[in-house]
Specification:
Two copies of one chain form a homodimer. Chain A is of the alpha/beta class. The first copy, chain A, has two domains: 19-257, 3-Layer(aba) Sandwich (Aspartate Aminotransferase, domain 2); 260-395, Aspartate Aminotransferase, domain 1 (Alpha-Beta Complex). The first copy, chain A, is 37% helix and 12% strand. Chain A has 13 helices and eleven strands. The first copy, chain A, has helices at 19-28, 37-50, 61-71, 88-95, 141-151, 210-217, 223-227, 247-257, 260-277, 279-285, 310-322, 350-358, 370-391; strands spanning 54-58, 79-83, 100-104, 126-132, 154-158, 166-168, 174-176, 183-187, 200-204, 304-306, 359-361.
């Protein structure tokens, strides 16, 4: 029998159908720079579907975070609290404005920030808290918002992975992630549920930022007010950048948004299949599967496993790779990074380090076929025998 | 006879043929986030055609300028010299890093910065000079580079409008704009000669910035070195942002670059026709046409007129608009902006103000037809009669 020609990447971008039509329409319609017809369609989609107050597409989630850092008025010497187990941009956006970062450890049961460890870091210099909804699974926002209220801090939700995911408050109200803190940021990078290659969005939940958010977005000018006829010419009124994406990206994204329901159904099916069919083998290998807290929903963004140690994780990644399946680890603790190690206050963050060493993400994309997923699951079962034969003795 | 149905925008984006094919190919090929196949093709195009050392596509020229501000190490208290008659981003990029801006007046014969007025502003805090090649026409780079050498300053060329434009040094060598200063920045905004909706590029001419430029571009990580196999994992090593554009934008741009020769020929034909056919009427109306210095080439980026005063300029714009032709003014002096007025050192910059008041840009895009251009030229001739009848008495 011929060797299986299956070759499974970790991620694969996809077309839902109308992406190229919409791009062509934008050109024909005479506008492919930012803030055109498709940008507005995307904004309207999010406002209508999730009840967001103000949405602004950006060129990346990084840029949305930079807008948040500017809007919250971060200055040198201000402190911002955030998890260490996150993407560099969560921190870099605030460091660019001069902030010192106080990194928080992850939860034992989840890579998200340990909410219980936040309040002890608050001091007179603290300006805000950035929560990261890892894998699209909500942090416990009631706890975070209470701390923020009590100490008068801004909350920015890094909801890069959390489109179409929700949090249920203690009082039973369910709200979309990105819509709870003062500001929320999303990503439409090609690894996300809905994509535009690179891309992101700022959601402004606190009205007091609304007017300035448009100015910062439009390079520090009052151009948006000008086009609404509120001022008779526009000029330089504030700091800002070119945060808005091309209509090419907005048109592509809009085609995806129109298929959000279908995309989400597919992704949840993939997630559930991994979860069910790997339960037994993970139990036997001491590998932890994701846990979804009662207050959180699952948006099928990512399927990860937490291996019992780094050696097992690396062995699994290698085993899959040799069989043409690309699984990948994720963040390296930022408090240990070359850039921040000597700026960090020295606290140990063992859970963050543990996820850096032990977490692995399985291939996950819209066009992953049942056959491909079956092959991945079967290969992980085969890994069990391989691992037990070669590595178990080292566990003593 | 029916009213002519002609309706001429100021600008119109265009497809040269393969833009959508290339985008589709990027998706099929499995990568639409940044730094993929088409990004490399664009980099290679520019390196080969213009001999640029290092190119990095960005999401906008604004972002390329922000990279320049980071790379040149701008800190609070540093001063940067640049023209007042420029886009806000030229200044904002440096202000975001804490710079104070010393604005320079424009030349009497050209909206570009008056090179003679630069050296007097240099002091111990001066870190760099940003030249803006207005309308794609070179500043006198020999003069600028001499000042920079003498005072140990960085030179950043804001070549947003200057793709495929050249400067001839006193010794006869001709070099592409953006390739002369330590760093150069380009724009591919939809109003430019080659476009990707929003988009830009940083060109690194001084080797000493090359390694760090890749890091800053990739969100402050050494990801580029990782993919070249130079380090075994990548992490956070510096400040930076998500400066790289999606492959959607790079694919679109690459299709345009393949047609650069055709685009340039068409644009120069449009420019030359405006120049020749408006010469007489401009002379009679005391309107100035663009002048191209001996050391500069013309890249057919823009056709502008400088009216004798603001009243005449506004009358011309209105007259054209009533006849469905959209002509537009350009920058407002940044030293007079709401944001910078009280930070400016108080010097009068009369030429900059004059261009703010009197300059008008005529419709200019790749698909402008001969018939449309004829209609614009004819309408400006008709304006002459109208203006003489209604406004000339006010000149006394």
């Amino acid at each position: 029998m011929k060797k299986e020609s299956i070759n499974i990447p970790f991620n694969k971008p996809f077309l839902t159908g109308r992406e190229l039509d919409f791009i062509e329409d934008a050109v024909t319609d005479g506008k492919i720079s930012g803030n055109g017809k498709y940008t507005k369609k995307c904004h309207d989609f999010f406002k209508k579907k999730y009840g967001f107050n103000k949405c602004l597409l950006t060129t990346s989630c990084t840029d949305a975070l930079e807008m948040a850092a500017i809007l919250t008025g971060i200055e040198p010497g201000d402190e911002v609290i955030m998890p260490s187990y996150t993407f560099v941009s969560t921190a870099n956006a605030f460091v660019l404005r001069g902030a010192d970062i106080r990194f928080v450890d992850s939860r034992e049961d989840h890579p998200g920030m340990d909410e219980e460890k936040v309040e002890g870091l608050v001091n007179e210099n603290t300006k805000g808290i950035v929560v990261v909804h890892y894998a699209g699974i909500a942090c416990d926002m009631d706890k975070i918002m209470r701390i923020a209220d009590e100490h008068d801090l801004y909350v920015v939700e890094d909801a890069a992975q959390a489109v179409n995911s929700f949090y249920t408050h203690a009082d039973g109200r369910q709200r979309p992630l990105g819509g709870i803190g003062h500001l929320g940021t999303f990503s439409f990078h090609e690894t996300k549920n809905v994509i535009s290659g690179e891309g992101g969005m700022l959601v402004v939940n606190d009205d007091h930022f609304t007017e300035r958010s448009e100015i910062v977005w439009e390079k520090g000018t009052n151009r948006s007010a000008f086009f609404r006829g509120e001022v008779d010419k526009y000029g330089w009124v504030d700091i800002g950048s070119s945060f808005l994406p091309s209509e090419l990206n907005a048109a592509f994204l809009y085609a995806q948004l129109k298929n959000l329901k279908k995309i989400q159904a597919k992704r949840l099916a993939i997630w559930n299949r991994y979860h069910q069919e790997l339960e037994q083998v993970c139990g036997r290998l001491n590998i932890r599967q994701p846990e979804i807290p009662d207050y959180a929903t699952n948006n099928g963004h990512m399927y990860y496993l937490v291996c019992r140690d780094g050696k097992q994780r690396d062995a699994l990644i290698s085993y899959l790779k040799e069989r043409d399946i690309l699984s990948v680890f994720h963040y390296l603790s930022l408090h240990r990074s070359t850039f921040y190690e000597d700026k960090h206050d020295g606290r140990e963050l063992p859970q963050s380090d543990n996820y850096s060493d032990c977490l692995v993400r399985l291939p996950f994309y819209y066009e992953l076929t049942e056959e491909e997923q079956e092959y991945i699951i079967r290969t992980i079962h085969e890994f069990e025998e391989h691992f037990k034969a070669h590595h178990s003795h080292s566990q003593g």
